[in-house]
Specification:
Number of domains: 3
Strand content: 25-35%
CATH architecture of the largest domain: 3-Layer(aba) Sandwich
Oligomer: single chain
CATH superfamily of the largest domain: Nucleotide-binding domain of ferredoxin-NADP reductase (FNR) module
Number of strands: 18
Bound molecules: FE2/S2 (inorganic) cluster
Low-confidence stretches: none
Number of helices: 7
């Protein structure tokens, strides 16, 4: 196992929990060693899931000014990998192990304009960015898209804080976000920050490239349980290690390979850095690319995948088996 993060673990005590929507719960933690939390930061929490200890990443929604209390939001998806259930079970007074904040999605201060785009629970990463941009008097707007208002966390808070700078798009109200229209409306020199499901980020990236805008000005963060297809069990083989293991619907390929004893490289575990890349030497089924690392062309080549998030789904009536070479 390997990671390039300089991780510092510490303890924390759950201060409060609150259900924000039927699917999203806010958990506030008093950390043992207060530290500055910048917008876009996340923490990893070590959780006991069944017989094993696993780690999960959560965006820091807010932190107290002294950094002593942080708030994260936990999404309990229908295909939750067990971590959300463990987080949801936390109660005030419980102790947790967590990393210091890490930031793979930093907000760059100094752009002429900003557009922040949140899809669903992606709002948890965008929330703090909007607050920071407001605090420094930046020219920004925030776009928040969801399925229905009762499922959209922090909606009232955001409306109160950002007023007309916030636009809300709700699928059940037939006001779904048109990504091409949004990107068409962006002035050159604007920086765009997106956090949401893979389909949203993919649409933003396509529209951005079609407009010929610099890709460095669009920054994205995903959450690894969002894919193009429903997560199903599949099999992964590494002939060089004489290894074959099953990847359950509620675990990642990286987790399954680690559990089977493979020594894997990784960093973000969120489909962003590419460090967990494996080469595909044989494939039965289709790759469900869930990363934001590869280009469209790289994905369609079906030669590589980010095993921390991407999966294999069976072709109609067939099986799902991938044979890989670790790099
Ligand atoms: S570990 Fe970063 S993309 Fe997989």
């Amino acid at each position: 196992m390997a990671s390039s993060h300089q991780e510092v673990w510490q303890g924390g005590t759950v201060a409060s929990t609150r259900q924000l929507t039927p699917e999203i719960r806010r958990v506030e933690i008093d950390v043992d060693s207060p530290i500055r939390v910048d917008p876009g930061a996340h923490i990893d929490v070590r959780l006991r899931i069944g017989e094993t200890e696993e780690r999960r990443s959560y965006s820091v929604v807010e932190a107290s000014p002294d950094g002593a209390r942080i708030a994260v939001s936990v999404y309990l998806s229908p295909v939750s990998r067990g971590g959300a259930a463990a987080m949801n079970a936390l109660r005030p007074g419980d102790r947790v192990a967590l990393t210091q904040p890490m930031n793979d999605f930093p907000l760059r201060v100094g752009a002429a304009q900003y557009v922040l785009v949140a899809g669903g629970v992606g709002v948890t990463a965008i929330y703090g960015m909007a607050a920071r941009l407001k605090a420094i008097g930046a020219d920004y707007r925030m776009v928040y898209a969801g399925r229905s208002r009762p499922l959209m966390a922090y909606l009232d808070d955001l409306r109160d804080a950002h007023g007309d700078r916030l636009s809300v798009h709700v699928r059940d109200e037939s006001t779904s976000l048109s990504v091409p229209d949004l990107i068409d409306s962006v002035e050159p020199g604007t920086e765009v920050y997106v956090c949401g499901p893979i389909r949203l980020m993919d649409a933003v990236r396509r529209a951005w490239l079609e407009r010929g805008l610099p890709i460095a000005d669009v920054r994205m963060e995903t959450f690894g349980n969002s894919g193009w297809f429903e997560a199903k069990e599949f099999t992964v083989r590494i002939p060089a290690l004489d290894l074959e293991t099953r990847v359950g619907p509620d675990q990642s390929m990286l987790e399954a390979l680690e559990a089977a004893g493979a020594d894997m490289m990784y960093d973000c575990r969120k489909g962003e850095c590419g460090l967990c890349e494996v080469r595909v030497s044989a494939l039965e089924g289709e790759i469900d690319h869930r990363d934001v690392f590869y280009s469209e062309r790289q994905r369609s080549a079906r030669e590589k995948m980010c095993c921390c998030v991407s999966r294999v789904v069976p072709a109609a009536g067939g099986s799902a088996v991938v044979t890989i070479v670790t790099t």
